[in-house]
Amino acid sequence: MIDFTPFAGNGMSNIHPGVVNNYSKLKLSFFIFPIFFLIIIALLLYQHDSLSVDKYAQVQKDLFFFLNSKLSQFPMTMFNLTQFGDALVSLSFLSIFVIYAPKIWEGLISASLISCLICSVLKELFSVPRPAAVFDNNSFVVIGTKLTGHNSLPSGHAITIFTVLTVLLFAFMPQKLKHKILWFNFIMIIGLFLVFTRIGVGAHYPLDVIMGGAIGYISGLIGILINEKYKIWNWVNDKKYYPIFIILSLLFGCVALVTRMMSDNLLIYYLSLIALVISLSKIIYVYAKK
Fold first, then answer.
1. Gap between the Cα atoms of 159 and 245, Å rounded
2. CA-to-CA distance for 232 and 197, rounded, in angstroms?
3. CA distance 212 to 221
4. Residue 16: its pLDDT value, please?
5. 49-67: b or e for each residue (b if 16 or more CB lie within 10 Å)?
6. Are residues 215 and 159 in contact, defined by beta-carbon separation less than 8 angstroms?
7. Orientation of helix 206-230 relative to helix 102-126, angle to 10°
8. Whole-number Å distance between alpha carbons of 206 and 274
9. Crossing angle of the two packed helices 61-71 and 206-230, in degrees rounded to 10
10. Best CA proximity match to 148, nearest among 158, 134, 136, 161
11. Confidence band of 253 (pLDDT split at 50, 70, 90)
12. CB-based contacts of 163, cutoff 8 Å, min separation 6
């Protein structure tokens, strides 16, 4: 059972004990699976002589068209759910953990910075053109803004989604093996469903999102381990720093979400704003009681 009682005071003992305990159990061996997975994909591409930019797109053409045609039948669902790859949206829903489990936010901050750096470097390195820059735009569905840049690999949305989900995966990892397997599979299914929306909106190839998910998983692990070793963001647990979150939420979060609502008027933006406002009011309440 997870105890969601707000923390009182500023001491380290107030951090959610389950999250602290779970994060302390992470090992370097956890990187083996995602790294091995990425190596397998690279070897398969090599086997099919598809490591070049042009052939990378062509080898996925049929699968991309198939998935895009099926997923794009639900345009508003795809367009709303794909926004979870936007850090502003996903972190808005998690803002309440600043109070209830600040250890999660310590991991999120490090992991988000790592994922942003890795994503930027790899996009620049691979310089793969988006589907809309390669294929006839009349042959598949584009939902939302048509993206034609040379920054398709890896998917930044997929990296963000799996970075966040990985931090949550290990934060709330159950103790029993059976429950661990169910929890892991649940998170992976949710993650894959969300990242495949990038294909549904016509923004990415299948391997973009699959490799992006693996990179996001790695980024989440790195973020947690960095914070466990160096304790960079321990100040998140100190109530005297709550005004930082309040100011950022008001000046950046709320304003940015309202701006996006005026632009696209998506339900997910309204829900994100509601979640952020609720968290903000709770943070202000707890801070005022100090």
1. 24
2. 34
3. 14
4. 66
5. ebeebeebbebbeeebbeb
6. yes
7. 130
8. 32
9. 80
10. 134
11. very high
12. 111, 112, 114, 115, 216, 217, 219, 220, 223
